[in-house]
Amino acid sequence: IIQEGGQIQFADQKQEFNKRPTKIGLRSLSRSISQSSTDSYSSVASYTDSSDDETSPRDKQQKNSKGSSDFCVKNIKQAVFGRREIEIAEQEMSALMALKKRAQGEKPLAGAKIVGYTHITAQTAVLMETLSALGAQCRWAACNFYSTLNEVAAALAESGFPVFAWKGESEDDFWWCIDRCVNVEGWQPNMILDDGGALTHWIYKKYPNMFKKIKGIVEENVTGVHRLYQLSKKFNNLYCCRESILDGLKKTTDMMFGGKQVVVCGYGEVGKGCCAALKAMGSIVYVTEIDPICALQACIDGFQLVKLNGVIWQVDIVTTCTGNKNVVTREHLGHMKNSCIVCNMGHSNTEIDVTSLHTPELTWERVRSQVDHVIWTDGKRIVLLAEGHLLNLSCSTVPTFVLSITATTQALALIELYNAPEGHYKQDVYLLPKKMDEYVASLHLPTFDAHLTELTDEQAKYLGLHKNGPFKPNYYRY
Amino acid sequence: IIQEGGQIQFADQKQEFNKRPTKIGLRSLSRSISQSSTDSYSSVASYTDSSDDETSPRDKQQKNSKGSSDFCVKNIKQAVFGRREIEIAEQEMSALMALKKRAQGEKPLAGAKIVGYTHITAQTAVLMETLSALGAQCRWAACNFYSTLNEVAAALAESGFPVFAWKGESEDDFWWCIDRCVNVEGWQPNMILDDGGALTHWIYKKYPNMFKKIKGIVEENVTGVHRLYQLSKKFNNLYCCRESILDGLKKTTDMMFGGKQVVVCGYGEVGKGCCAALKAMGSIVYVTEIDPICALQACIDGFQLVKLNGVIWQVDIVTTCTGNKNVVTREHLGHMKNSCIVCNMGHSNTEIDVTSLHTPELTWERVRSQVDHVIWTDGKRIVLLAEGHLLNLSCSTVPTFVLSITATTQALALIELYNAPEGHYKQDVYLLPKKMDEYVASLHLPTFDAHLTELTDEQAKYLGLHKNGPFKPNYYRY
Amino acid sequence: IIQEGGQIQFADQKQEFNKRPTKIGLRSLSRSISQSSTDSYSSVASYTDSSDDETSPRDKQQKNSKGSSDFCVKNIKQAVFGRREIEIAEQEMSALMALKKRAQGEKPLAGAKIVGYTHITAQTAVLMETLSALGAQCRWAACNFYSTLNEVAAALAESGFPVFAWKGESEDDFWWCIDRCVNVEGWQPNMILDDGGALTHWIYKKYPNMFKKIKGIVEENVTGVHRLYQLSKKFNNLYCCRESILDGLKKTTDMMFGGKQVVVCGYGEVGKGCCAALKAMGSIVYVTEIDPICALQACIDGFQLVKLNGVIWQVDIVTTCTGNKNVVTREHLGHMKNSCIVCNMGHSNTEIDVTSLHTPELTWERVRSQVDHVIWTDGKRIVLLAEGHLLNLSCSTVPTFVLSITATTQALALIELYNAPEGHYKQDVYLLPKKMDEYVASLHLPTFDAHLTELTDEQAKYLGLHKNGPFKPNYYRY
Amino acid sequence: IIQEGGQIQFADQKQEFNKRPTKIGLRSLSRSISQSSTDSYSSVASYTDSSDDETSPRDKQQKNSKGSSDFCVKNIKQAVFGRREIEIAEQEMSALMALKKRAQGEKPLAGAKIVGYTHITAQTAVLMETLSALGAQCRWAACNFYSTLNEVAAALAESGFPVFAWKGESEDDFWWCIDRCVNVEGWQPNMILDDGGALTHWIYKKYPNMFKKIKGIVEENVTGVHRLYQLSKKFNNLYCCRESILDGLKKTTDMMFGGKQVVVCGYGEVGKGCCAALKAMGSIVYVTEIDPICALQACIDGFQLVKLNGVIWQVDIVTTCTGNKNVVTREHLGHMKNSCIVCNMGHSNTEIDVTSLHTPELTWERVRSQVDHVIWTDGKRIVLLAEGHLLNLSCSTVPTFVLSITATTQALALIELYNAPEGHYKQDVYLLPKKMDEYVASLHLPTFDAHLTELTDEQAKYLGLHKNGPFKPNYYRY
Question: To the nearest whole angstrom, how far is the Cα of B448 from the nearest Cα of chain A?
C-alpha cells in the first residue's frame, strides 16, 4: 500500500519474473464452465470458446446495449451467460454484498478512479460492481493471458464497465489492454488495485506524471508486505490447499488416495494443508523440510520426516510446497518408480526441475490435458501434472469463499487508503491495520451461521482490550 | 452364481427395474477423456465424440486390420487411443496382470465361451484380455446406453474381440447389440458374466435352449447374494464413496467443504464413508437413520443424530445414502435454504423425490452439466445434482483400483465355476468361498508394498486355522 | 444361551483356561477410587483397602442394618460409600433405568432365581438392582480375585443382596464364595448369569441335579456364540479400545503420543480402534496382519503393512491385538530399541512371550505399578506393561456407557430366556434375536440426545421391512 | 531476559498473583509415582509420602554421603529412588544430554552462579545436572508448595546440589527455602532462572545490592515476552493440551468421549488442541470465541461457533481455554444439565466463577480427588474438576518431551546471556534470537528419527538464506 507520491519498493527480480504473465502459465482462478461436463449439454456448449470465431477482439466493432464501445472483450453477446455466473457468485460472496449494503449510503469511494489489474472472473465482477456501488469509477485489465472468462468480461462490458480482456491474449494484446485501461482522455486514475506489481511498475515507468497523482495502491505481493493480508493468505494457503490438493489430483488422475504413499516437500502452510488432507483420506505421508521447527511440527503431527532421497524410490506421489528451486531434481525423477505422479503446489514453477526432462532419451506423451507421461527408455513412466506449474491453479479451482475474503479485503483497503487523512500512511509500504482483518472475518461469519461472543465491560477491562477489538497483539500467530 | 441347468432367482421387480439401462441414467464408470480439460489441447480433442460423424455404427461397414468385421463400434480408427487407455489401466490393475501371468500356463478357461454384459471401459478391456489369455473366448455388449468409451471398444475390436457397444445407443440399439453378442452361428456361450441380471433374464426368456447349456453365471446383484463379493462391495461402498463424495461435489459445484453444514441420510457403509470424508475436510455433519444400531454408531463416531425435519432449514448440503425412497420429500425441499445442494449417493434414483419438483410454479435452470437450479417463486434456488441420480456414478469416477478388485473377483469366479466338478454348486445362488476374497485381497497387497505375516505352525495350531486361510469364520465382520 | 435341561458346549480348554481367575491377572473393570488421586485427600482415603484390618471376611461376624447375615463382604460399614458409587453409575446407565421403569409393572422376572458370577462393581450393582426390581431373586459371587469393589459389595449386602465377594480373595475363598452363592437351603437357582463359563461348569459338575432345573444360561463367551452380543462386543472392542489404548499408555508411562512410532499387531476390531486413536493423536502407526483382507483394509486406511521383523528396531511402542500366541517373541524383544514400550490389547496373555524374559541375564525392575523395566546386559531397557496382560483391563477402565450396553443386553437376555415358551430355544447354544440388539441400541440413544427417524408405511413396504425392525439381515456387517 | 543491572518490568498484578504459589493450586508437573497404581505394590509404596514421618524437614539434621548438609529435603535416604526417576527422565531428554555432551569441553557456564526457582522434578534435575556439567554452580528452591518430588530432591542433595524443597511446604517454609537458597555466605548469584517472576521480585526487594550483580535473568512469563519461547510455548499449549485434555478428563471421570457434546470456550492454541483431540475421539464440539478471526478458523475447521447460552443446556462437558474471567458464570452453571462436567484448561483460575457456587443452597460433595459434585436443591449435580484450577496441571502430566524443550531452551538462554558481550542485551526485556528456537528444535529431531534436508548453495542463494538458518522471518507464524 503506497500513498500519494510515494516511492514504491518493487519485488525483487526473481519474484517479479514469476508474477509476470507467461504463455506457459495456464492459470484458472475460476471454475471453468466446460470443465465438469461429460456430455454434450447444448446450452453450456453454446458459450464455450471453441465454437467462437477466430477474429481478434481488437479488430471487432462491438457496442453494448447502451451504445458504449469503451471496452474490448471477446463477444459482447455472451453477456447473459456471464451475468448468470456473476449472480451465482454473488450468492456466495455475502460479505461483499453486506459491505455494499452497509456503505452504499455514504459512498465512501465517491471520486475514486480505480484502475484494476486482476484475473477477470465472476468474483472479480462482484468486486468491481461493489466498488462502483460505493462510488468509484473502475477500468480493468486482465493480469493473465488465459484466465479471463469471456462471458463475465462481456457481462461487465454490457453493464458499462470499461473492461479490456479476453482469454488467449497475445503479449502484445496484453500490454495493449493495459494501455487502453490507463491511457484514456479525460480520466485519470487515483487508485491502483494491482496483482503482482506489474501494473504499478508500468504506470510508474510509462506515465510518471500520472503516477504522482495516485493516492494509494493496493497490492498483495510487494516484497516486505507478506503480512498484508494475513487472513486472506491463511485461507489461500492452508484451507484452500487442503482441499485443492485432493481436487487437483482427482481431476487429473482419478487416483484413489487410500493407501498411497506420498512425499510432501515442505511443511509450511501449504504443506500442512496438503499433509492433513492426504492423511485424512488414508494416504501415508512423508515430509521433507529444511527448517528444524517446521520439521519438528511435522513429527509431532505424525509425519515421518525424511530426505527425499530416502523415499523417492517407493512413493506414489511427490508434491512440492517449498517456494524453493530444484527441490525435485532430474536425479530424483530418475529414481522414481513407474507411474509415480509429480506435481507442484508451491509458489513458483522452479520447484521441479522440469527442464531437465527435455532430453532426447526421454519421450513425452500428453495423455490428457495437464497430464504428461515422461517415458524412460526402459518403459518407466513418470506422470507430470501441469508441466510442473501450480497444480492448485492449473487443475483445481479456488473456492468462491476464499476469493470473497481476498476481494473484501481489497475493497476495505481501497476505502481505508482513499479516505485516510493525508500523510497518515507515509511514503512506504504499509500493513493494513489488524482490525481490518478482524472486520473482514466478522463479515464472513454469517456464512457459517456463526455466533460471536461479545466481551462484557468487566472482561474487556480485565483483558485490557477494547470491546470491539483488535483482540490480539500484532505478533499473534493464529 | 448359478451352475449348469439351474433355476435362477431373479431380482425382484423393483431392483431389476433400477438396474435396467435408461436414457436418464448418465453413468460414467471410467474417467472421461475430455473431462478434466480446460484448454483446447488438440490431440485429446481429436478423439472426442463431438467431432465424430453422426452415422449410426449399425449402418457402417467397418473391418479391423485383420479383416474381421465381427463387431460393431463407433469408429475402429480410434483403436490407437483406446489402446493407450488400456495400457494405462493395466499399470494400475497389477492383480489381474499377476493372475494372468500365474494362470497363463495352465489355461484354466480353455473351452470357456463367455458372454459378457458390463460397462465397456479400459478396465473391462483388461479383464477381457485376461480371460482371453486364460483360454476363454469372449463376446461382449454394454450394460449402459452412455458409459461406453468408444476408443476402448475400438481397441478391443481391433484386437479381435467381438464387441457390440457405443456411447449413445438407443434402446433398440441396445437390444440389437445384446442379440448380436449372443445369437451367433457356430458359437454358443457356456458362461455368463452379467451386471444386474438383464442379460441372464434375456437369454433365459429368448433362448431357453441356450440357457440350459450355461455352465455358470457370475453376477453381482442377484437378490440374496449380497455377500457374494464382500470385498468388492466394501471397496465400492465404504472406501470408494469416501473419496467420491468429495470429488462429485467439487466437480459440480467447486464448493469449499470447510465449515459447511451437511446432513447425510443413512449411516450404512456409504453413509459412513461420506461422513468420515466430510468431517475430515471440516464440514459439520448431521446424520439421519432408521436403524438404532447404525444410529448409535453414528453417535459414537461423533455425528449428531437428527430427523431431517430438524435441520433441513439450516444445512448447506443434503446427501442421501439409504437405498430407501422419498427420503427427501417435496416438503423437505421446500424448507431448504437458498443455495442448498441436494444429491444422492445411495442405491436408487428414488431417494430424492425429484418428480415432485416438476411443477409449474418451479423453474428449472441448467447451470452446467449435471447441475440444475430449481428456482422457487421467491427466488430461492435449490442446487440439484445429477437430477437425483447417483452422484458417485454421474459426477465422479470409480478408481481403477476398486474396479480391479471387482474384475479380479469376477475372473476368479469364472475360473472357479468353470472348473468346479459337476454338482459341486447346486441349482441355486451361491456365495463364493471366503478364501476367494482372501486371494483377491492378497493379489492386491503388492500395490501397497504391503508385507503379510505368515502364521507359524504353532500359531496355526493354536488358532485352529490352516496356514493359508481362510482366516475368519463366515460371519466375521471386517 | 442354553435352555432347560440342555447340554452345554463348553469353551475349549485353551479359552477356558484364559478365562479362569488367576492371581496374575489384575483386572479392574471399574474405576478405582484411589487411582486418580495425587494428594492425600482424606475422605477418599478413608475407604480404601489399605487402611483396612487384615481379618478375613470369612472370619468376621457381620450383619446388615436389617439384621441379615446372608452375605460375606469385606466391611459392611463401607456401604454408604458404595451406595454413592452406585448412584453415580445409575446416572450413566439410563438405559437400564429406563428398562427398569418400563418393565417394573409387569415383573417379567417374577419367580426367577438368578445366580450371578461377574465382576462386582457399581455397574453390576445397577444390573442386580434392576433384575430385582423386575421380580428376580439374585445371589452373586465375583468372577475375579481382585476386581471387587468392597464398598459396592457392602452396599449390596446392606440392601439385602446375598453377595459373596471381596478384593483379594484366595483361590480357596473364591470357590467358597461360589458355593455359598449356590448351595443354600430352600433356594434353588433357575437362571445363570455367567462370565467365562466357570460357574456353569462348576454347577454342572458339582450339583448335576440342580443343573437340570436351570431354565437358561446367559453367557457371553461360550464357544460358538461369538455373535451373541454383537453390539456389546463391538462397543467393547472397537469403541472402547479406541479410548483405552490412549488411557492405558498415558496412565502407565505419561508418554507423548505425537510423533511416536507404533506397531500394532493385528487389524481386527481392537486393532482398528487402537490404530485410529494413535493416528489421530499424531503417532506413526505400522500394522502387521496374517489375513489379507484385514491387511488390505489397513492399507486403504493409511497404515503401512509390515512384518514385525521389519520395523521392530525402530519403533517406540509395540502393541498386540491378535488373539494369537507368541506374536512378540524373545527375538523381537531382543531387537527392540532402548525404552521401547511393549503392551497387549488382545484377547489372551500369550501374545507377548513374557516367559522368555525370565532368564538370568535379564534384570527386571518394577518402576511403578503395572510397569516393569526389563534390562539387558548392555543397559537397554524394555518397558513392559501389565506383565503382558491386557492393558485395557489392567491399566485402564471400561467406561460405564459400554458396561451399560453389556448389562442391558444381559438383562434382556435373561427376560427373553425366562419367558420363552418351553422348547423355543432348543438344547443348544443360541444367538439372541437381532431385534434385541436393536432394542438395546434404541434404549441408549437418549444418552446422545439422538433422534431416530421412523419409516413411513410406504417406505417400509418399499424396503420389505417391518416399521419397528429388525432393519437388517442377519449377515449385515455394521 | 534482563542483562546486568537492568530494570525489570514485572508482570502486572493480576498475572503475578496467579503465578504466586498458593495452597489451593495443586499442581503436578511430573508424573506422580503413586498415581497409576491400583494395587498394593510394595516397593512403590515404600517411598511414597504417606508412610513418612511427620517431622518438618527444617527440624531434621541430615547429611548426604559426602558429609554435606547444605540442603533441606524431606528424607535424604530416598535418594536412590529419585536417582532412578532422574535416569528414566534422562533417556527421554536426549536433547539436553546432547547439549551437555557437545558443550562439556568448553564449559560455557564456568563461573556462572545460578539461583533457580522451578518445580522440583526429575526433569528439573536433568537440567540442573546439565548446567553443572557446563560449569555452573546452582542453588535451587521450589516454585510450588506441592509439586516437589521428595525422592528427586533427595537425589539432588545426595549429588551435592544445595536444594531446599519438599512436598507440602507451608508459606513460611516456602520463603525460608528461597532465602536459604539465595542468602548464603561466600556465594553470590549472577544468574537467575525464574518461573513467574517471584524469585526475581524477591531478590530485587530484599537484596537490592545482590540484584545489581545479576548478569541475566531467564524467565518465561514476564509481561511482554510472550514470544520468548515460541517453540516451548507452542508445545506447551497446542501439542501438550491436545493430549492432556483427554488425559485429564479420563483420569478424573473415566468418561467415554465418543458421542459426548462438548463446548470449548476459546479457540486459541489451547482451544485448537482441545478441539482437535475431542473431535478425533468422536465428541461433538462447539466453540465460543470473541475474536472473529479465531472464530472463522473454528468454522473452517468444522466446529459450530455458538454463544455459550445457546448450548449450555445440552452439553455434557464445558471447557474453558480463554485466559479471560467469568467465562462460565453462575447463570451458565445453573442452566447446565445433570452430570455436566466443567473444567478449565486456560491460563487462570478465574475462567469459571467457582466463587459463585459457594452459596448455602448448593451442596458440595467431593467424590474423589480433584472431583467435586455441586448439587442443586432439585438434585442436579454439576461435576467440577480441580475446583476450576488448570485441569492440565492438576489432573494430567506434562510429557517429558515437552519439558525437555522448555529445559533445553532455558539452558541455551542461560548460556547466551552469560556469554553475551556486555551491553549486547540492553536494560530491557528481550526475545531470544529465532536461531535459538531452531537449534532447540534441531536437538529434538533425533528423538523422532527425523532427517532434516540441507539447502544446497544454489538454493540458499535463491532463497536469500544462510544454509544454517534462521530460515524464517521474525513474523513467521509456524
Answer: 6
